[in-house]
# Entry
Amino acid sequence: MYLFQISNYDDPAVDRETAELLHRHLEAESRRRCPAMWNVIDRIRTHAAKGGQCAAAFMACSCWRWAF
# Structure
């Protein structure tokens, strides 16, 4: 026999966890239904993530060319 005790669901941590799980579920379902759209989104995010590194490398290279 199991005994369950209902806890307080007004805890903010439960709200944050529930929101995060719903967000993950929504994205997973959307990726399943619209894979082509998500391929484009992932490519954009990857390109944007590399943008900061590429810009820094470009500036470093430009500075070295100017110095010499």
